[in-house]
Task: inverse folding
């Protein structure tokens, strides 16, 4: 006879069992303490012998200790990740390593070295979360299934020792079957379900609240799976595009299928209208204007041709309208959000040519350079010819050499060759904002800036998130599980007749106060008033 | 006796079933975990990568005579070095002379060098091409569509594509003369 063979009924229980699965006799006979009712005394599934490597891995994750440790590590790591700002929130003008060192000293440097500056997307943080997910799954299976089986196949006839070692217990000597029936009818009124075997009764209610934690874990796992789906390109897009007024740009993340045109970018600031007078005090205390609204009037097109990338697309309008902050434009599961803007980028510049000595600067020729596509030569009826030799959209001098810092006309610089009529010898002029240089100081003609056009650039976020419904369902199931486990209790009452007396024991998985209260109600007007709280006795 | 045997058989059956279902669950869970972590590491860079077929495109060619458009698939049968660059990108400027110096030699061996500029205006590209005397095809990706199709993030980015159109190597950042030659050697058609 093994240690898990029941001495009362001879049933062979699985290793790790603490209460006989058949008759309910506690297997630790010598012990007189209250019974541990967790999982109704069933063996947790991982407690098996003859372990293969699969069983060993399984048992590792099945341990609550391991699960709690993982959660604790994740909590500590998450907390550390909030001590200094994450990398995405620091200015992108300086390198991250310098920023953390300069701003936060030695601790900042350690923080950076250990990778906490991008904690939440680091592989080890994800590994931690994934391991927690695996642990939750296996823990639930290993405990949920035995518990389900135990509660499904309950034997109303429990061994007397089982009842005697419950927290709420009472013995009654003088009673009639009538009294029992009365108690049972009271229990039925309280919506207990009653099963019977050989005159032994089990009254039970709220069993489904025991599934709460498992429903909750199921929701959590669906939630985690939802976050995993973000890595499927079809499910999740998070891109960004700058669109200049009047320009049409390909929308990133759509395989060159969609294009967006910026018809107009509008920005309104506080103080422009009379109704804003009430904010005058605040407005005047600010250095920069406060934006009230900014929006892009946009048109979305679809490329209906089968053309290769780089070839002229055949655009068909899909949608047009306003993209306002928090009011995205939606099409084909995609949403374009107004994100940011750059105001007053140069679009074109106008110049005139005049004699250097002319005090009135009378224009001899006038011309306009389109900065998005400058021509390299400008010819005029009066015989003048002007060549645009070099163009620097974002001019800067580096080691005496002119160059462009970026692609965009933020600070345009020009080298013009001026050919007077019938001359092959050009005069060289260099122009930039605030600069007009005659390198040889021998020029007869001078080019002057007469005007310019600017336009605004709108920054749009491209978003698609099909994972949200999955995450939402996961969160909803999670909440159902919480409610199920929190607001209901699993209450059981065993009634055990012996030759001369009646034993009654109560058990609830929580809220013993409620259980006692309920007992008082169902036992009113019956003989079975008093139940001993054996925990108090100890 | 018979009963004991039967029980034992049942036990073995149960054990085998347990092994199978535990293995299956562990495989699925660890598979999902691996997928998440690997995709997370790769998500930084959605660019077309080694081993993939290079996406075809067609762009305007700015230099060379009697040529207007160049289509990548026209170069099938040749090894192709595909370089994404811009005039305002310093490392791009530095590697251009290397490419020019190796171009004649490798053109003979059946390797074409194609440089795609993502500059906004043609004028700056033309100026640059004249300044550096570049003879290999210079294409202009004015609408950034090809850049989007390849998922280019840093400049320069260079692809080395074999004669079947399969990407053999991808280099993010600047090339040196020595490693450029090594890469070109890899895509000489056999």
Result:
């Amino acid at each position: 006879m093994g240690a898990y063979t029941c001495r009362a009924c001879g049933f062979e229980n699985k290793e790790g069992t603490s209460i006989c699965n058949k008759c309910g006799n506690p297997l630790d006979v010598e012990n007189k303490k209250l019974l541990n009712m967790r999982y109704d005394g069933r063996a947790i599934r991982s407690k098996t012998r003859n372990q293969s490597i699969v069983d060993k891995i399984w048992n590792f994750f099945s341990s609550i200790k391991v699960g709690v440790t993982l959660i604790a590590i994740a909590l500590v790591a998450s907390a550390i990740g909030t001590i200094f700002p994450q990398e995405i929130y620091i200015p992108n003008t300086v390198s991250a390593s310098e920023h953390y060192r300069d701003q936060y000293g030695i601790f900042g440097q350690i923080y950076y070295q250990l990778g906490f500056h991008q904690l939440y997307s680091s592989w080890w943080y994800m590994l931690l979360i994934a391991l927690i997910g695996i642990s939750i799954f296996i823990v639930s299976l290993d405990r949920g299934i035995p518990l389900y089986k135990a509660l499904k196949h309950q034997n109303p006839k429990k061994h007397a020792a089982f009842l005697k070692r419950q927290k709420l217990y009472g013995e009654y000597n003088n009673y009639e079957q009538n009294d029992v029936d009365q108690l049972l009818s009271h229990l039925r009124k309280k919506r207990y379900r009653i099963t019977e075997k050989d005159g032994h009764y089990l009254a039970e209610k709220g069993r489904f609240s025991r599934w709460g934690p498992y429903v909750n874990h199921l929701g959590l796992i669906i939630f985690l799976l939802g976050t995993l789906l973000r890595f499927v390109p079809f499910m999740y897009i998070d891109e960004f595009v700058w669109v200049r007024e009047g320009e049409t740009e390909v929308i990133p993340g759509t395989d060159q299928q969609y294009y967006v045109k910026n018809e107009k970018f509008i920005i309104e600031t506080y103080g422009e209208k009379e109704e804003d007078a009430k904010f005058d005090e605040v407005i005047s205390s600010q250095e920069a204007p406060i934006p009230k609204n900014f929006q892009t009037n946009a048109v979305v097109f679809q490329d209906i041709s089968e053309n290769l990338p780089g070839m002229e697309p055949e655009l068909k309008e899909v949608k047009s309208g306003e993209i306002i902050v928090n009011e995205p434009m939606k099409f084909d599961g995609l949403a374009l959000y107004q994100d940011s803007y750059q105001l007053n980028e140069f679009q074109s510049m106008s110049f005139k040519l005049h004699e250097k000595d002319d005090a009135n600067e009378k224009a001899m020729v006038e011309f306009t350079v389109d900065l998005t596509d400058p021509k390299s030569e400008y010819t005029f009826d009066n015989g003048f010819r002007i060549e645009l030799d070099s163009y620097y959209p974002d001019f800067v001098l580096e080691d005496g050499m002119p160059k462009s810092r970026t692609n965009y006309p933020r600070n345009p610089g020009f080298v013009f060759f001026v050919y007077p009529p019938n001359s092959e010898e050009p005069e060289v002029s260099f122009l930039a904002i605030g600069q007009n240089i005659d390198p040889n100081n021998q020029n007869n003609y001078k080019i002057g800036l007469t005007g310019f056009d600017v336009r605004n650039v709108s920054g749009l976020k491209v978003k698609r998130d099909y994972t949200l419904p999955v995450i939402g369902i996961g969160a909803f199931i999670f909440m159902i599980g919480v409610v199920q486990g929190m607001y209901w209790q699993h209450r059981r009452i065993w009634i055990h007749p012996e030759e001369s007396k009646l034993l009654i024991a109560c058990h609830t998985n929580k809220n013993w106060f409620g259980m006692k209260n309920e007992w008082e109600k169902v036992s009113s007007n019956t003989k079975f008033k008093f139940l001993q709280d054996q925990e108090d006795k100890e | 006796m018979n009963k004991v045997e039967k029980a034992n058989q049942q036990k073995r059956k149960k054990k085998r079933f347990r092994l199978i279902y535990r293995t299956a669950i562990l495989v699925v869970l660890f598979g999902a975990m691996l997928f998440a972590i690997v995709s997370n590491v790769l998500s930084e860079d959605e660019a077309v990568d080694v081993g993939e077929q290079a996406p075809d495109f067609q762009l305007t060619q700015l230099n060379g005579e009697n040529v207007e458009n160049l289509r990548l698939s026209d170069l099938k049968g040749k090894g192709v070095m595909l370089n994404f660059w811009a005039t305002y990108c310093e490392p791009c400027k530095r590697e251009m002379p290397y490419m020019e110096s190796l171009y004649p030699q490798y053109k003979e061996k059946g390797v074409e060098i194609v440089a795609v500029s993502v500059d906004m205006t043609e004028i700056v590209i033309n100026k640059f091409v004249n300044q550096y005397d570049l003879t290999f095809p210079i294409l202009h990706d004015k609408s950034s569509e090809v850049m989007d199709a390849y998922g280019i993030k840093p400049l320069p980015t260079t692809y080395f594509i074999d004669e079947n159109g399969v990407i053999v190597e991808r280099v993010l950042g600047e090339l040196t003369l020595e490693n450029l030659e090594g890469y070109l050697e890899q895509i000489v058609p056999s």
Notes: Chain A has a mean pLDDT of 88. Chain A touches chain B through 52 residues (CB under 8 Å). Chain A has four domains: 44-150, 160-206+489-537, 236-344+459-465, 346-454.
